[in-house]
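Quick one, T. Sequence first:
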Amino acid sequence: MTPADDGEEAAPPLAHVAVVALSTYFVVVWGAGFVATRIALQYAAPFSYIGIRYAAALVVALLAFGHGARWPQSRRQWGHVAVAGLLSHAGYLGGSHYAQRLGLSAGVTALILALQPLLTAVIVSRWLHERLAAVQRVGIAVGLAGVALVVGERALAGSASVASLVAIVVSLACVTAGTLYQREFCAETDLRAAVCIHFAATAAVMLPLGVVVEHFAVQWNGVLAAALAYHVVLASIGAFSILHLLMRHGQATGVTGLLYLTPPVAALVEWAFFRVAPTPTMWLGMVVACVGVAMTSVFGARSARGAIIEVRS
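Structure tokens:
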């Protein structure tokens, strides 16, 4: 979900060492989460796993910070937040999980989804008539070139099928639409309330889909339980709590600048767990793409209306 003003007064700045430690946790947990997904999908179908994950995360979120949240005051606003959540979580994860299930590596999945700020920048420039800075326009071209290097090599090697690429494009489109929808209709919603509503809406859609489409294909074991605990506790709750803390202390821009390290993190963790070694071309493409995305969102944010980055809790 989009970092937005949650209505709380800014707290005093954190010590530099604390900012570095918390930001590092956030980036590593997010990047490694793609590999945790690959592990989980060995034992559970995508929709079924997402439904279970978000039902569990909803319970934990309500207990952790639901009591202090400021909830929307109208059914219309509840609906807007739910739609933003379905796009940013159900659509995003449904597509990305199926992309990995169809053979796309965790590193490449993370890299393509890192294009979200680039796609958002193009849309706000083309249809919302917000002028892009020169550095943003260059960043878009650089980012796309980097991804083209990686995806082209994977496609030629036969490890990126058409079906997996279609699934990841759907994921990218959904999370971008969710970012824009959140920005347009939910910018003033309390961050804690929005997270709970997002989790509830996603669980309410994905659990029935898992039953109908996948016959709730879940093979319970210790490995699946560990992946689920990782996603619920470390990612959905832990990463959100750290994001919320950093935002309160005025560090949202700094977190945005580190988010583009997630594709290399995902590639390194996948290498460690699955022995899928990134090639030199893949490393080069990742570096080029991450530089392009950073140019578009971090530097361009100085002249745009807010940061164009989506955080999936």
